[in-house]
Design brief:
With 139 residues, this protein is mainly alpha-helical. It contains 5 helices and no strands.
């Protein structure tokens, strides 16, 4: 149970950052003053580097649970495979956010605030799906 508890704590912290960072991108894309632009660069960089260890710990404890008992218990069930695929997508999303942080830092943003508003919804959909799959184990 400790593994699952720590996994959930780290997952919640990771998601807090994954939810907020793209929201910063929305506001940063709307900024037209230099002071605001520089402030968002600092906020985005700090949040990304604060959030990344939580992702790593979430994955570490998740894979530890898989190794310890979950793969033996649920490895043949489709819901677990879908959940792992969604987690892979979320990791790719997180890494892409890092790319966007670098682009903003270099003043090379090429997306509108509207694009970022839609981009911001991706982790919400993944969170709903992952939690429902993990709790309901539907198939």
């Amino acid at each position: 149970m400790w593994l699952k508890a720590w996994h959930l704590v780290f997952m919640v912290t990771w998601f807090a950052g994954v939810f907020y960072l793209p929201r910063l991108f929305v506001y940063h894309a709307m900024t037209d003053d230099e002071a605001g632009n520089e402030r968002f660069k600092v906020m985005e960089r700090k949040l990304y580097y604060f959030t990344t260890p939580w992702m790593i710990l979430t994955l570490l404890f998740g894979f530890w649970m898989l190794y310890d008992y979950a793969w033996a218990a649920f490895g043949k069930m489709l819901w677990l495979h879908i959940k792992l695929l969604l987690i892979g997508i979320l990791v790719a999303y997180h890494l892409y956010c890092g790319k966007l942080v670098r682009e903003f830092a270099e003043d090379r943003n090429s997306h509108s605030h509207v694009w970022y508003r839609w981009f911001n919804e991706v982790p919400v959909v993944i969170l709903f799906a992952v939690v429902l799959l993990a709790v309901l184990k539907p198939f």
